[in-house]
Amino acid sequence: MQLTLWTYEGPPHVGAMRVATAMRGVHYLLHAPQGDTYADLLFTMIERLPRRPPVTYTTFQARDLGADTAGLFQQAARDAYARFQPQALLVGASCTAELIQDDPGGLAQALDLPVPVIPLELPAYQRKENYGASETFYQLVRALARRPAEGAPRRGCNLLGPTALGFRHRDDVQEITGLLLQLGIAVNVVAPLEASPADLARLGEAAFNVVLYPEVAQQAAGWLQRQFGQPFTRTIPIGAKATQAFVAEVAALAGVPVPPALQARASRAPWYSQSVDATYLTGKRVFIFGDATHAVAAARVAAEELGFAVVGLGTYSREFARDVREAAAHHGVAPLITDDYLEVEAAVAALQPDLVLGTQMERHIAKRLGIPCAVISAPVHVQDFPARHSPQMGYEGANVLFDTWVHPLMMGLEEHLLGMFRGDFEFHEDAPASHLGHASASMAVPEPEPQPDLPEDLPTMAATWAPEAERELHRVPFFVRGKARRNTERFAVERGVMTITVETLYEAKAHFSR
Amino acid sequence: MIPIASATDSGCTDAPVLRERGQREVFCGLTGIVWLHRKMQDAFFLVVGSRTCAHLLQSAAGVMIFAEPRFATAIIDDRDLAGLADANDELDRVVTRLLERRPDIKLLFLVGSCPSEVIKLDLQRAAQRLGQRFLPRVRVLSYSGSGIETTFTQGEDACLAALVPTLPATAQPGLLVVGALADVVEAQFKRLFSGLGIGPVQFLPARQLADLPAVGPQTRYLLAQPFLADTARALEERGACRIAAPFPLGVEGTTAWLRAAATAYGVNEARLQQVTGPAVDRARQALAPHRARLAGKRIFFFPDSQLELPLARFVARELGMQLTEVGMPFLHRQHMAEELALLPAGTRLSEGQDVERQLDRCRADAPDLVVCGLGLANPLEAEGLTTKWSIELVFSPIHGYEQAADLAALFARPLHRRQLLAAA
């Protein structure tokens, strides 16, 4: 049993719903008790889809358990087929139905429906949402993709991975499709988003696959490679540099030249980052957490394209932990692989970063700690479906990243002014950055209390501050004061200094500024 | 029964009810935790369930407003199911860790879920075991919020019913108001009862464990919420006696509810009129503009919170709306007798749900306003129907005189909005 306050991922059948809801002509029959229909509101409220997810819930009750839940399932299957006339039917069980072991796959096969019936085995007590999405997409592809005729011409590529409830999937698809178009590469099928079973049947006609979201599509792409000999892309086009590498990768796969317009600086972000106003971004300490793909990409963009210092990197996707471990090693930080929200909060509180790039969970953590934050990954919130076009991928995506990551920070000039006028009688530490409003004032000031159950490698004995050192500390601008206090105390403890003097403060400053 | 309806019209008392079985587009009883944990301020709700339960609570709670909410899920995993770990030991470990972390918790509810029910994890025994270990610091109780047994607001019923046996005993007479109400509403009702000279009045649930009301054979209780069948039964086992009444929604409902108490306590009609008069006038005045906007409009209720019958009675009688269908998760004829008598005769009532067929009926009716859950609202809006999210009716203070116009506004706003957007 695991104690959970908030979860990063839903159960695996929600992953299956994300695939089914993205597609056309598919229906998902879910053996589930009353209440599991809550999942519909993720799609209708968070993503604001104007249609219901194509899911029928069998809605069994306690009194059915002793009777015939299997019969209920078969009746629901017949009714759902008759009403929705899908081209393919997915069948599966939610966590409770898994326990009663009705075998939805077998029951549905026995009905002899005139469409492909694809059973989903999603172990709800071991796996989570992304696994469910990946497995569902894989099973659909396996069941529906037709082997291309021997010697038939292969044209263009497929875009694999975008689902319903994905973080900016809608906009990424548009962006990458445009990019491929500029390269003269046709998009054969986009899947699962907006694809029908008939579209999946045509997957084999493409020359290669573009995997946009490995969490969802890598498994299916691997199968397509083994079965149909379609190679797939490895570069995730998040950030200007990665987009350039992606362009080179797809051009090579398609055997086309890269047009000059795509070779040169096709994004505004690198220039903005180079402009003098961005100088103040140098070495901003950033903490990153999200799904593996977005977290690794964000770390790369932060370090290489914005000149930030990555001080923490983690993911909740255990399936892709290896990628995050490698990236963390590259950035010289310890990887944080966890789905325990409290652990992430403890890490952020301990690191005191200047910026948090995370999910909606980290947005809440950052808000409580008074740290600027931008959202880079699912789990999603209604705000993550903006009305405007706002991709994360491609050259425009790089521009979006620059804007959304830099705006929560203090404006460059504003930060300088705070430094210059600190101590001014009208300009005290309780005055927050103008764009953060009043709310941050109360949150920015108190330093987070170190939590008792934090993994703390320091001795508990702490040095005390001499009054004059304490006064000096208060002359340090408040937005770096927390860091200064921590560093100085750590420095003192490491050296066995019992009383922190002004000297200790500046020695520590010199030590850590290196 | 208190004679409220005119003697010649028995409303929907004997009306046929369409009973349906099929897909239900309603929450399970776990959802009640979302408001119960705000109401009971030193209680913690630990769901023993699956990742789905945790995900439901998080999605139903909408956003993570609270750093550490007073609810959590102990997620059952493979090791528990395979018998590699003793589920009871695991539960003890989780609870111990939780209570160490949260010394502010005085009352812990172990909340059963679909998976815990199916694997027959005995939470009642677990609660007794843990209670013995943690008393007197923490009281541990259990109830089921599982979807195989409870719908949405029945979770509150199960929770309060679990509390009832633990209430202190009393031989003193007193009035108990049952059902979670907004604090502001509680205060208003307290003033009204005190004006009527009825007392002492206590409320269940109370904000703090220490303030839980006492109950005994001299206790009379009024239900403030229409979904408390088990709680009522548990109170009656303690000797308490229900005062039958419609529910305090709208001016008429609130007056009838207070009148039922007044009659039971021998307070005469003149005193009732005198005490409620100013609030009644105020509320009627505030309702008038909403009535002008809503009168004659046709409304369709999907089943959701069990508040549908009293709400339908309110919108029909006080706002002049026409009822096309009033759906409810289940019909408790005894508790709803007064409401049924007040509903316009001929109203189509439905119990349970087959959501696809109900949607067919709704589209055929083409009502002006559809009251439905969050899973249906946007899709129906996209089809051109105007909707009101039913969940807001559960989360907003809607009971009593001063909230009558707020309640009407909840129905009026979607129509007003559509009008504004169409006019532009």
Structural features:
heterodimer, A: 514 residues, alpha/beta, five-stranded parallel β-sheet, four-stranded parallel β-sheet, 15 strands, 46% helix, B: 424 residues, six-stranded parallel β-sheet, 16% strand, disordered N terminus
Describe this structure in words.
Chain A: Substrate binds at residues 412-413. Chain A: Belongs to the ChlB/BchB/BchZ family. Chain A: Residues 465-509 form the Light-independent protochlorophyllide reductase subunit B-like C-terminal domain. The complex is a heterodimer of chains A (514) and B (424). Chain A contains 23 helices and 15 strands. By secondary structure, chain A is an alpha/beta fold. Chain A has a five-stranded parallel β-sheet, with helices on both faces. Chain B is an alpha/beta fold and 424 residues long. Chain B is built from 17 helices and 14 strands. In chain B, the strands form three sheets. Chain B has a six-stranded parallel β-sheet with strand order 1-12-11-10-13-14, sandwiched between helices. The chains are: A alpha/beta (514), B alpha/beta (424). At the A-B interface, β1, α2, α4, α5 and α17 of A face α2, β3, α3, α4 and α5 of B. β1 (2-4) of chain A pairs antiparallel with β3 of chain B.
Give a short synopsis of this structure.
The complex is a heterodimer of chains A (514) and B (424). In chain A, helix 17 links the parallel strand 12 and strand 13.
Number of strands of chain A: 15
The low-confidence parts of chain B are 1-7
Give the % helix of chain B: 40-55%
Radius of gyration of chain A: 26 Å
Shape of chain B: globular
Average pLDDT of chain A, rounded to a whole number, is 89
User: Biggest interface in this structure?
Assistant: A-B, 56 and 63 residues
Which sheet architecture does the biggest sheet of chain A show? Answer: 5 strands, parallel
The helicity of chain A comes to 40-55%
Number of helices of chain B: 17
- Strands of the widest sheet of chain B, in order across it, are 1-12-11-10-13-14
